[in-house]
């Protein structure tokens, strides 16, 4: 086993973990606040990918990707707001129904994308500044993957700062900690719900754009990440952003390290076994969240 | 939707009236086709994931049927195609195959693409003693008297690809595939042959169908430094694989890649820029030069659009109809058993694939070609097997105890 291969796998683990962060953040946010399991989250990732594809046809060239990320952030957010107002909020007290209804939305969205864009994926050409790799010694770090790690870090930092310092962040934290009291103090928890759901979806939209740098955008692209995203949320301790981040990196690293010893398809088995064992010893996940919303 | 409803309604009507007065339904057909007809089934995925590939095979099959009808039909009868949608679901394929053979009483069926769809249809055709013409390269390891396997057996695609690689002097091989029966079996056969020839498999990795994360696979390729990569990935995973290989600095011009599931259609939709310089193994390329192929391409593009490409599975779908016609004429009957017996004893007929014929194991004798993709998505044919290859459903090196004998 040469050292370059091992170091490369650490990098790959971080890179995959950063994708999981982007894909799982929205899930963690909506679950933490509203206890909603949103099965259509992966389709918002997919939607972000198609937004990237459409944006790149309008704005080709080096600025395409930043513009696409902005567009997908906004479009994903709007999509989330729409989904929350029309469906999720109306099923607020029926978690099982929400699960089924959002799963239905996910099926509709997949078929819709198939009819609109075709069953084969569309491809997003990375701009030249994201092509190629940085060579360090005998290792190489693809720019696209470095970029994704950067985006994930910025998204995390941005969210943390936002929740810590802004007034809306304060309202969100208040609703999260004690919903009835916040509501009694005049906070519109209804609007807070919608805002958080939309914010989570906006991040998912950005996840779709960065995924488009690595592979094709297909009607089922969200499906291939959503299961792991759920895994990350559960491992992270349902609803904690810090926990989600740690869990995402952990899962990325465990599967990359497992690939050193077993083949790639078996590494997924190893990862799942790791999660199961971890939860046996620490059922509350990496970070235990104390919240009235989760206490009943 | 409307069309579907009509067809369903007509079928229901016909089944219903057949019980009361058989003549009634017949009159309807006569009015439609103008003369006596023989029904055949065309069963492909017209919706769902596989539609993009299978619709092209349906098109070429329908073109063959139209051409034959225009030239007078088969045994004086016009062919009436009953087209059904397998919807990319094996269960739907089985259900539609039952409908075609039992309700529509078709003489034969042309269709299928994925191995799972074929495996789902197999019991239906064995039970109804009908005949399925299957157009796609596959993993072999199957031998039914009720299926005509026109697509390549492993020894007509994988082994020619290996023979070519050996001639090029490649010593170390890395196998990458989607995680299902075709890549696993094809790679098992490849491994046996590579080791038998004293060469080396330096890695074998699989990704789930539709998977797009290849960082681990690529890291292993990088560490193993193979002379050549054999790629049996299917569908969209290919785009992700080639993209991430390029990002890691391993473009097809630096590390040769031989793909077994990328034909003209796929290369075009992936973007030829991404895959140019990579290789593929098939029994047909659009660029093959023969009068039959030139005629086929001209007719196909006139019918479906000048920008349409032609590919190996399409060609097999087209050729199958002509061989069925020749077999029916030789047998003097539409009975599936008689047609099968006639089909495996026909002389080779000239086709865009070259001269081809079926032999007793229900598979097609055909030539293996290797093509190199250029920047326009066309393959330059760079190698061909010295002679047409006899099909081997069970590779003798890998499965020495199995034989395909159909009496």
Explain what this protein looks like in three dimensions.
The complex is a heterodimer of chains A (296) and B (407). Chain A has 296 residues and is mainly alpha-helical. Chain A starts with a helix and ends in a 15-residue tail after the last helix. Chain A has a two-stranded antiparallel ribbon with strand order 1-2. Chain A contains 11 helices and 2 strands; from the N terminus they run H-H-H-H-E-E-H-H-H-H-H-H-H. Helix content of chain A is 73%, strand content 3%. Chain A has one domain (16-226). In chain A, helix 1 (3-34) runs antiparallel to helix 8 (189-214), helix 2 (41-58) runs antiparallel to helix 3 and helix 3 crosses helix 8. Chain A has helices spanning 3-34, 41-58, 64-88, 95-117, 143-165, 167-177, 179-184, 189-214, 223-236, 241-261, 264-281, and strands at 133-136, 139-142. Chain B has 407 residues and is an alpha/beta fold. Chain B has a domain at 155-282: Rossmann fold, CATH 3.40.50. Chain B starts with a helix and ends in a 23-residue tail after the last strand. The relative contact order of chain B is 0.12. Chain B has helices spanning 2-20, 22-33, 51-70, 90-103, 115-128, 154-167, 181-196, 215-224, 237-247, 264-270, 272-275, 291-304, 312-331, 336-343; strands at 37-44, 78-85, 109-111, 132-134, 147-149, 172-178, 200-207, 228-232, 257-259, 279-282, 349-351, 354-358, 364-365, 369-373, 379-384. A 7-stranded mixed β-sheet of chain B has the order 7-6-8-9-10-14-15, sandwiched between helices. A 5-stranded parallel β-sheet of chain B has the order 2-1-3-4-5, sandwiched between helices. In chain B, strands 11-12-13 form a 3-stranded antiparallel β-sheet, with no helix packed on it. The interface between A and B is large, with 42 and 37 residues.
């Amino acid at each position: 086993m040469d050292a370059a291969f091992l170091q490369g796998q650490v990098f790959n683990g971080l890179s995959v973990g950063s994708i999981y962060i982007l894909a799982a953040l929205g899930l963690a946010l909506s679950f933490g606040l509203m206890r909603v399991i949103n099965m259509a989250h992966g389709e918002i990732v997919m939607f972000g990918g198609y937004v990237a594809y459409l944006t790149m046809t309008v704005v080709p060239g080096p600025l395409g990707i930043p513009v696409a990320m902005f567009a997908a952030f906004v479009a994903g957010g709007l999509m989330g707001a729409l989904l929350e107002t029309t469906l999720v909020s109306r099923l607020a007290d029926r978690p099982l129904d929400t699960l089924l209804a959002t799963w239905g939305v996910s099926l509709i969205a997949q078929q819709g994308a198939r009819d609109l864009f075709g069953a084969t994926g569309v491809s997003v050409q990375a701009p030249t500044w994201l092509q190629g790799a940085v060579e360090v010694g005998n290792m190489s770090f693809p720019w696209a993957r470095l970029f994704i790690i950067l985006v994930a870090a910025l998204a995390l930092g941005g969210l943390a700062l936002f929740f810590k310092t802004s007034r809306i962040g304060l309202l969100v934290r208040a609703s999260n900690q004690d919903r009835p009291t916040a509501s009694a103090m005049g906070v519109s928890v209804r609007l807070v719900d919608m805002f958080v759901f939309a914010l989570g979806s906006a991040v998912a939209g950005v996840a779709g754009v960065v995924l488009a740098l690595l592979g094709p955008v297909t009607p089922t692209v969200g499906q291939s990440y959503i299961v792991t995203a759920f895994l990350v949320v559960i491992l992270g301790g349902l609803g904690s952003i810090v926990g989600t981040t740690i869990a995402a990196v952990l899962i990325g690293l465990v599967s990359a390290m497992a690939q050193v010893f077993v083949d790639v398809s078996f590494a997924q088995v190893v990862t799942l076994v790791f999660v199961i064992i971890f939860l046996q010893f620490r059922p509350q996940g990496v970070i235990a969240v104390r919240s009235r919303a989760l206490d009943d | 939707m409307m069309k579907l409803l009509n067809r369903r309604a007509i079928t229901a009507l016909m089944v219903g009236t057949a019980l009361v007065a058989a003549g009634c339904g017949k009159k309807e057909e006569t009015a439609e086709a103008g003369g006596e007809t023989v029904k055949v089934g065309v069963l492909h995925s017209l919706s769902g994931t596989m539609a993009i590939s299978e619709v092209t095979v349906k098109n070429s099959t329908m073109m063959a049927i139209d051409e034959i009808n225009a030239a007078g039909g088969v045994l004086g009868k016009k062919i009436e195609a009953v087209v059904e949608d397998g919807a990319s679901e094996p269960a739907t394929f089985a259900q539609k195959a039952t409908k075609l053979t039992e309700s529509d009483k078709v003489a034969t069926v042309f269709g299928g693409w994925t191995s799972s769809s074929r495996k789902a249809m197999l019991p239906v055709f064995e039970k109804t003693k009908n005949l399925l013409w299957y157009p796609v390269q596959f993993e072999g390891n199957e031998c039914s008297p009720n299926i005509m396997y026109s697509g390549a057996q492993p020894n007509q695609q994988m082994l020619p690809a290996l023979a070519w690689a050996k001639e090029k002097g490649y010593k170390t091989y890395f196998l990458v595939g989607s995680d299902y029966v075709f890549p696993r079996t094809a790679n098992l056969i490849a491994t046996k042959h590579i080791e038998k020839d004293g060469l080396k498999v330096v890695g074998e990795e699989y990704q789930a169908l539709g998977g797009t994360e290849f960082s681990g696979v690529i890291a292993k390729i990088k560490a193993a430094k193979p002379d050549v990569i054999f790629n049996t990935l299917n569908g969209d995973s290919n785009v992700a694989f080639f993209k991430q290989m390029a990002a890691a600095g391993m473009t097809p011009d630096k590390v040769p890649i031989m793909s077994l599931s990328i034909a003209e259609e796929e290369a075009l939709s992936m973007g030829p820029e991404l895959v140019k310089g990579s290789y593929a193994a098939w029994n047909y390329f659009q660029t093959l030069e023969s009068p039959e192929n030139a005629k086929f391409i001209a007719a196909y593009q006139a019918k479906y659009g000048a920008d349409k490409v032609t590919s190996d599975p399409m060609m097999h779908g087209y050729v199958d109809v002509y061989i069925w016609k020749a077999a029916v004429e030789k047998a003097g009957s539409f009975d599936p058993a008689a047609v099968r017996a006639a089909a495996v004893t026909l002389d080779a007929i000239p086709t865009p694939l070259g001269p081809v014929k079926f032999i007793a194991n229900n598979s097609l004798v055909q030539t293996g070609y290797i093509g190199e993709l250029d920047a326009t998505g066309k393959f330059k044919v760079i190698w061909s097997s010295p002679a047409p290859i006899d099909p081997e459903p069970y590779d003798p090196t890998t499965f020495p105890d199995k034989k395909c004998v159909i009496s």
